[in-house]
Amino acid sequence: MYHKKGDLSLSTNAIVVLILAIVMLGLALGFVKGMFGNITKTFEEQALAEPEPNVATSSNPVTFSKQIISAGLNDKVVFKVGMFCNNATENCVDMVPTVTCGLLTKESNDLCTAKNVTKYSSGISACQYTASTKGETICSFGTSYGSVDIKVKVT
Questions:
Q1: CA–CA gap between residue 57 and residue 85 (Å, rounded)
Q2: What average pLDDT does the chain have?
């Protein structure tokens, strides 16, 4: 005297509970992704949000988008550099600022290059560095035509 209806009802309940659990898990994952997914921005998003530096000129050949760089240890720092091509004979094909700073480590060579700057004009480049050492110092950012000193603080 077994009731097969009860067995069928039990497995139907189990399937409904399983489907509800999967739906709830999907909703929970969507919520977590929505809340925490925008914490890390891509380099492009950070570069777009960074203000433009003043236009670089022959008397001020390197300009910077920030007066002070402040970051936590291992944070990625994005800034823009304006560079003036003071070359009378040809265009400056790839202008890369040199950085003298023990607190920052460059992320990639391709990220910080002003390409095809015509002679006697300026170009802007977005750069990404990692705050690799704790401390506070004055760092020098420059080209062969000049440089600018910026205060860097890594906590």
A1: 8
A2: 83
